[in-house]
Amino acid sequence: MVRYSDSCYSGRVPPRADRSSADPESFLPLHRDTFHILVSLADRDRHGYAVLQDVLERTEGALRLSPSSLYASIRRLLEQGLIEELDERPDPEHDDERRRYYRLTRLGRAVATAEARRLERLLADARATGLLARRG
Amino acid sequence: MGIRAFRALLALYPAAFRDEYGRELALVFVDRYRDAAGPWDRARLWLEAVSGILVEAPQEHARMLVQDLRYAWRVLRQHRLVTATIVVTLGLGIGANTAVFSLLNAVVLRAPLPVPESDELYTVNGGRHVASGSEGARLSGPMFEALRQAAPARVGVVAMSRAVARVYTRTDEERETTPASLHLVSPSFFRVLGVSPALGRTLPEDEGGAAAYEPVAVLSHAYWQRRFGGSPGVVGRRLSINGTAFTIVGVGPRDFLGVWLETPVDLWVPLTLQPAVKYSQSFTADGADFRRPWLPQAQIWWLHVVVRVPHEQVAAATTAFAASLAGSDFRVVLAPFARGFSQFRRAFFAPLLALVVMAALVLLVACANVANVLLARAVSRRRELALRMAIGAGRGRLLHQLLTESALLVGMAGVAAVLVAGWAGDLLVRVATATTEGPPPFDAPIDLRVLAFAAGVAFVSVLVFGVWPAWRATRVDVASSLQAGARGAIGGGARSARVLVVLQVALSLVLVSGTLLFVRSFQKLQDVDLGVERERLLSVGVDPRLSGTPPQDLPEMYRRVLDAVAGVPGVDSASLAMCGLQGRCAVEDGFRIEGYEPRTKEPVAFSVNAVTPGYFSTVGMRLVAGRALTEWDLAQTTKVAVVNQTLAATYFGDWRGAIGRRFGLATPDIEIVGIVEDARGLGNVKAAPLPSVFVPLSQRPVIPRALEVRTSVDPAATVASVRRAVGAVAPGLPIESVETVEARIRRGLGQERLVVLLTSGFGALALGLAGFGLFGVLSYAVARRTPEFGLRMALGASRSQVLRSVVREALGLVAGGVLVGLPCVLVAGTAVSALFFGMSPHDGGSLVVAVFVLLGVGAACGVVPALRAARVDPMVALRQD
């Protein structure tokens, strides 16, 4: 029998089982947009527009994701098993029931953390060489 | 307003993506639009949205395509056997069509000559000196001159020798001569055709002046590359052609190989140099003196004339030309010449057309087979599709995937077809032209339009039989389809499969019986009584004119050569003849026969050969009356001739009465002393024998061009010693060709061999495909009816009864196909009857054999499923339900 699980369009696709045991390092380095989306989902579950606004605020308007690139990224992240779609609503007060909410998976969190560490090490290297001022 | 426009933009996404995320995208857009501060911000939002979609949507499409292809590849790999069957079947079907049509294209529909405005070119045709069905009339030099004088302004007239001659060339540095092909042309040839030299200049146009007789030559581009390595210093060099020194003045353009399709030209020299290159081929003559230059003689017709006429002047030019030849019994017809000359085109048109039709039938059988396989699979795939719909795939998505699968299948088949066509195309040209070594005279590049067309037909059949049933199946209720399982959903599939098998059998019957007819016709051709004893006979082409021997010493040289060859161990006898078994003798017209009054305008034309004594016994022609030619028939004795039975029967009623009668050209001065059985020309054994005359070489001082050698051993083994013997007594005598008569006959049957090779291939292919289809249908039917067989056996039916019922079903399908196919065979046979030799197109024997072959295949393909049915365990089968 043929497996169909690779098709993310065939309904709400759960993350692939084989990906949950994947090595987070294998996803690095992350694309800028991807990293920002993962970061914005790190503290709470959000819907698409909330992600967009969060990224905009945190980057002080420097990164304006367009809806189309946002959802292309979301589709990819779902496929890779880094995020998942929620069935229950996380925030009953502000809930808009028309919207879909997303959450980091265990793997997604591990990947985002690994990327943050990578950037941290890079930063440390930049300081060590005097490129950046050492933290006081 | 804004949201509607945005929704419209979303249409650029693949439907599946749109279904999944479209609403979300729109919501986000609306939110941002609402939050936007002022028109400037809104404009920026729009710009972002539009550019984002324009970038992302194509990427989504590409991603989906890749995903579909990957999925399709996995499905195809999983059904490896089905996939391989379809790819091979369609590959062969499409490839065969492409190869055959490409050959037809190269030979018959070939692109016009590579000259500007080739549709303005015509060849002068019509009148009584037209060789049967030839492209251009035979004209004499004075007739060409008259046409040239009569040509209206802007009309160009060109003459050329009818044949492209084989000549021997040598540069100053070389000691040995090498053969080349030479075409004699009038100096205006290049200008009128519009061909400019790649190097140097073309032939000088100097009417009647001294320059017109200068021995100059233009090389073809290919010959320049081959012989002189493309050296730019070739212009001005000397080249000896058949013993006369010529100066090379130029090189033709790269793509121009002359005006004959199957004979690329190496050298062009002026017509005036006919005596210098000792050209003496393909002419009709009446009282001409062959030793004088031919061009000024009105009694020797040896030229083709090609004219360039602007479209609006065709009628005027025809009238002017006709007026210039008034009184010469010549009716001028301008025949289109855009594609040049070709004997090949005429000979191959009908067979190739028949082959194209057969190839198309094979493709049909192949498509029917593919349809069968796909139909069977569509039934078994219903579960899979139902399952996919159950987990949320849309029907559109499934259709998309099915289409991708089909396209991938046909694409793979297309690749296989290109491989088949590339390999087969080269083989076909070689077989058709009897090329055994070196490049064939022309190539047949794969015709992409045909490939695309054949692949299109295949794709449609895949769509109709693979996608449509599967797609229809998705409409059924998912749950019931899942429950029914593989066995439940049969419905119309089985019926269509049966119809397809009947169709396949019918088409196969046409192809198989056609193949048998072609094969038997070919056998008859090979075994036809030639009127000569073909075994142990060697035919050697010589050219005494190039030997450097003075004409008066030639008879002495002939005697030396004959004695030397007859003395070679393994040689029984040898004779010389004006024209050999290898070629055809010239047909001379205008004979008068004592006591025979021809009807008005009735041509009295005989094929004339001049031979040495012993010719008939050497080649094995049987004398049926009178005597053969002897040593005592000399120049000064009574002129005598031996004629063939056809001549004797045609002009003297009872052929025995011909002995002692007289005939001749001007006066009837030649006495018939013997009659021989008819012999056929080796180059075309299909043609009926012509009225033929054999005269003693001693009484007709022409140049013998053939040495026939009868051996007592394998003739091929004597070739080297015969060459040595000739070289020893006549060192300067060039041997143009040595070939056993058997080999010559084989070479002459190139067209028939091509047809037989292809039809056999097609027949076998069709038979195999039909058998495969039958096997599939029966296997499927047996699997479906397992419970039924079980029940029958539980109720007391024996295994042999079950076995018989399945085989009976197989034979029933074949019988149905035969009934449908029979009328087609009769119609098709009539259409191609001209291609058969000595066979009725409705040959009963072939048809019966074909029917039995098909029944045999049917029974064989039924046996395996039948055995499976007979092995059914009643208990197991009944429990299955």
Structural description of this entry:
The complex is a heterodimer of chains A (136) and B (881). Chain A has helices at residues 17-20, 32-40, 48-58, 67-80, 106-128, and strands spanning 46-47, 83-85, 101-104. With 136 residues, chain A is mainly α. Chain A has a single domain (29-128), classed as Orthogonal Bundle (Arc Repressor Mutant, subunit A), CATH 1.10.10. The longest helix of chain A is centred in the C-terminal third of the chain and has 23 residues, at 106-128. Chain B has 5 domains: 2-78, no CATH class; 81-110 and 347-489, no CATH class; 118-344, no CATH class; 504-522 and 745-881, no CATH class; 544-733, no CATH class. Chain B is built from 23 helices and 25 strands. In chain B, strand 21 and strand 22 form a beta hairpin. In chain B, helix 13 (492-527) runs antiparallel to helix 19 and helix 13 (492-527) packs across helix 21. Chain B starts with a helix and ends with a helix. Chains A and B meet through helix 3 and helix 4 of A and helix 2, helix 3 and helix 9 of B.
Unreliable parts of chain A: 1-17
- Give the helix/strand class of chain B: alpha+beta
User: Level of helix content of chain B?
Assistant: 40-55%
Can you count the beta strands of chain B?
25
Q: Which structural class do the helices and strands of chain A define?
A: mainly alpha
CATH-assigned fold name of chain A: Arc Repressor Mutant, subunit A
CATH superfamily of chain A, by name, is: Winged helix-like DNA-binding domain superfamily/Winged helix DNA-binding domain
Strand content of chain A: 5-15%
Major sheet description of chain B: 8 strands, mixed
